[in-house]
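Q: Protein A?
A:
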Amino acid sequence: MTESDEKHSITAGGVVVNDDSVMDAEIYTKGEKQPNQCRDPFFAVLYYIHVVAIIAVAGVLGIPSLTKNSQLKPDASKDSVEVTGIVVTAVTSAFFTFLCGIGALFLMMRFATLVIQIALILSVVLSLLVAIASFATGNIVGGCLGLFFFLMSACYAWCVWSRIPFAAANLNVGLTAVKANCGLTVVAYGLTFSAIIYSIIWSVAVAGVFTQTTVCDASGNCTGKPNAGIMFMLFLSYFWAQQVCTNTIHVTVAGTVGTWWYAPEEANSCCSQGVKESLQRATTYSFGSICFGSLLVAIIQALRQLVENARNNDDGNAILLCLAECILACIQSIVEYFNKWAFIYVGLYGYSYLEAGKNVMTLFEAKGFSTIITDDLVGNALTMICLGIGLVAGLVGIIPAAGDKTMFAGVPPGSEIFIGFLIGFIVGVVISSITLGVVASSVNTVIVCYAEGPAEFQNNHPELSQEMKEAWQKAYPELANW
């Protein structure tokens, strides 16, 4: 290599990359495991303070308000019947969702390429069906939008079709890592359950706040509502907690898959050392970083919710509110995209939030992965599978609703079937999204690890490495000499 060539090269994890496109890129340094110390601790403390505050509001204001309302409804027999119907339908749908989830994982491991192809075709077909349905019902604007999305989807499918084998290889590796550490799904369900508990507490707190800020007459007509500041804080609290739960799962999966990649002997069982240590780091040393990144998204989500409420209540200029919501949605997408990759580096090495984001983006730029990470073929496939499982669970939910209509005695006659389907669909989507979310995090971590440690992958998992290498060379021949 000449002196001139050396000026145009980047050394990354033992791999020398000659690429003029990275001349202006910041020099990439391979990630290193950070010392065990708390990162971004201010945001972890702030998060705990906010949780304690919500619990206090729920206890001081929420519980008394619920007790007062229950005393005004002495006859709760119909409500109890409806609750029973909801529980029976939800449990039945959850059981079949679990079975469908196992079947989906099996199919993805056996027919990864076919699954991604079908999902891509379905996304195109569905956009066309939306356009046709809109035109058929006289909705010209909706039909034109549907037609536009159909054309965009078709063009996207045509452009990325040749890259499906590489996405399938990533999916197969990600599934293999999750299968070797199936305790990750247990962790995901456990953290999701904690988020559900928090949602209940938050709902009680919101009930208390509304009781204190509204005045109701004997007829049940209420006036007054919390001001925008209080509403913003309530929305922020809810979205922050949900983001923290989701990203804690993401970071835990990233750490476990990284251990499986570099030290497979430590991450090769249900409750492996890799799973335990990754969960421990995510909930202690890296928890502040998780809270930091989650707070950024939660602020945008809370603002979007306020704008949406204002639009629904006609509180302001409709055009400006629509424009504001679109801008906030774009900003949210950008921050979520950044978080998705930054939190992988947090899980792999324990960097702080901003440092992790900077390092992973530098990695992608140095390796020429900018195009690769925008092809969310696996994500699209997982979304379609999630919706498919939701539909199956919805159909299963119809069975108990149709078999015993007294379970929904308080609803209008004839609506039991729809309610059963809706409950089943929601349960199916929520439960399957948890399992498939673990798979998505695993696949994204595989992309980062493959960019950073292909040699280690070859040494520890030679068959999977060969599969990815062949798919890589076919999908991205311009980077084949990487």
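Q: Protein B?
A:
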Amino acid sequence: MKAALFLLVLALFSCALASDLEITRANRIYDIQAEFLHFQTNYTFHNKESAQPASSVRIPLEFSKEKISTMRFGAADVKLAHTFDESAMEYIVQLPTPLQPGKSLDLIQFGVAFHMLSFLPKEIAQAEKQYCVLEHHVLLASPYAVKEQTTSVSVHTDNVLSESADIEPHTFLKDQQVLALGPFSEGHGSSEAKFRVHFECNYPFLTASHVVQDARVSHWGTVEFEEHYEIRNSGAKLKGFFSRFDLQRQPYSAPHAVFGVRALLPSYVRNVYYRDEIGNISSSRMNATKHGVELDLVPRFPLFGGWKVPFYIGYQVPLSLFRREDKTILPLRPALFHAAVDSFELRLALPEGARNIEILSDLGDATVERTKTHGFLELLGRPTLVIRTRNVIPALAGHLEMRYSYNPIFMLLKFAIAFGYLLALIALGFASKAVLSWFSLRSHAHSE
């Protein structure tokens, strides 16, 4: 009974705090970029004259959490810390300074969501155009009163088959390639009202279903990487059969197919290789740029909607590129730079003898498992960090910053083991020779 009364009081207190704050203006911006839906909301919060100072605000979850890759909040060019309330499905954003009564604050929310588009039609022929549909709520869901709000959807095409919304006003600005909704005032329509836009999206939707990156750190001066991919074209599925003759006759007739993939490797990379199980990836190109080394892989058959191919690449990078004083900083992303990565797993094997391993960077929702892996002539095993995360955008991914202690004497461990094996073999050879000599003398004595 006391617990229920406490929860009731807490709920009433939260409602009172919510009623003290209001959103005088909210501007939502959606930018569709293939698999990625970039969204930004500009808020203006106002604290009422009779209210208490507010140290945090609550921002509701706009999309399914399983589809969100990146979420950031900022105010006055300052990144704001935030936590997620699972029970209320809201982000609790800490303000840089408490918002005083009668004052206002501009806050920006930025995020990226995956797989928010559906395809209509779901299947297309090789030379047909591809069309997508985005459907979402018109009005912002918020625990605070919203005095005025607008929404804009950038589709990057003027070929819009249809657009609709449950409430007015809304219009498609063809010259800007933007669907504009609003402005809406408080109490304007139902919170369940939705908009829908059906537009041309005749470009490839490249998705990496699962990526496993194995990294082995050696204090002899290198870091070895091997990355295993399963990529697919997640666009509208191919209807009918593939015709290479039609594709060669009209090379630009299927822009929604994947004709190649690009990996961005670190500078000073060496010993690059790639393999695939079915031999589909047959050619490659490498090009050094100011951002790194671009590796282009070209399959024999382009990937149409629903098609997939597994492959892996490997390379070596000097360890000095990742060392900063006593820290090691590695990119927490795969090398395939333009794909939406559904699932990413990094298996980082540190040198034998590494200890006091400390992760310094904030890994967000990623899970970390500590284990050991054993290789050739490795008796103690390498301390290994297995980091798993979902919905990775390589262009926006962060870094793994860590610190560990290491005694260079362990660098000689393999030589000592190999030398021990060599001595054991020599001793075994002498012992075998002695035994054979003893049997030879004994048989000779019996014969006499």
